[in-house]
Amino acid sequence: MRITQFNLLMCLLLIAFGSGSNRNNAIASELLPTPDTIRSFCIIRKDSVRASEYHFEKKLLKNGVILFNYISKEDTFSVSCDTLNNEYKAKFGGNTVTLDAEKTRFYTISRKDYKVLKLVGDKDVTDGAFSLFVNPELGLLLSKSNTWRAAKILCLDKDNVLLTALLYRIQTDQDFFYDSIPNIQKFTAPKVE
After folding, report:
1. Where are the domains of the chain?
2. pTM for the whole thing?
3. Backbone angles phi, psi at 174, to 5 degrees
4. What is the DSSP pairing of strand 139-145 with strand 130-135?
5. Which of 90, 132, 160, 190 could bridge 119 with an S-S bond, Cβ 3.0-4.6 Å?
């Protein structure tokens, strides 16, 4: 899985740094994607990768809750962030899941700090736990299964070097991106009769 992630990351970096004439403009540009309402994600399932476009909508509700809606031909999902009350939810199709805010990191890129929340859904479910990495300004950056080889990563245009750097920082932060391994203090060998 790490080799696949590394290969995908290297492809993204090659695309981002491939255009020499636009490199200086990309560094000076803001991290935010263009204001259009389309977001593309790379959908990874085991050994296959495909791109999918989503109609994206960000809403700021009256109570301060930020709602990110994503709609495509294949699926629909939304992420609700109430950072004031530390309440987070995701809706996939018709199922709503409460998310646990596991960790928060601030990454500095070009002298600007970007907040990234690690939200975990179905935390105590053996084969169903998943992590969402969300920026309150941008929405979903990436999601991954905590058990299976599946992920959804925001696709980048070749001129957005800063967003490439943010995704790289998230994926290489061992304490943030990867799930903790339980610390088993005592192991009892099974009895054989």
Report:
1. 2-177
2. 0.72
3. -55, -45
4. antiparallel
5. 132
DSSP 50-96: EEEEEEEEEEE-TTS-EEEEEE-SS-EEEEEEETTTTEEEEEETTEE
Amino acid at residue number 116: V
Q: 91 and 78 in contact (C-beta within 8 Å)?
A: yes
- 4 three-state secondary structure: helix
- Collect all residues with Cβ–Cβ distance below 8 Å to 95 and sequence separation of at least 6: none
| pLDDT tens-digit readout, 155-173 | 877 667 788 888 888 888 8
Q: Are 158 and 19 in contact (CB under 8 A)?
A: yes
Q: How confident is the model at residue 79 (pLDDT cuts 50, 70, 90)?
A: very high
Q: From CA 27, how far away is CA 16, in angstroms rounded?
A: 11
Closest CA to 19 of 165, 157, 168, 166: 157
Angle, alpha carbons 11-135-18 (nearest 5°): 25
Tell me the β-bridge partners of 50.
43
For 28, residues 6+ apart whose C-beta sits below 8 A from its C-beta are: none
Nearest by Cα to 8 from 188, 174, 153, 110 = 153
* Predicted local confidence at residue 185, as pLDDT: 54
Decide if 132 contacts 78 (C-beta within 8 A). no
**Neighbour tally for 3: CB within 10 Å:** 7
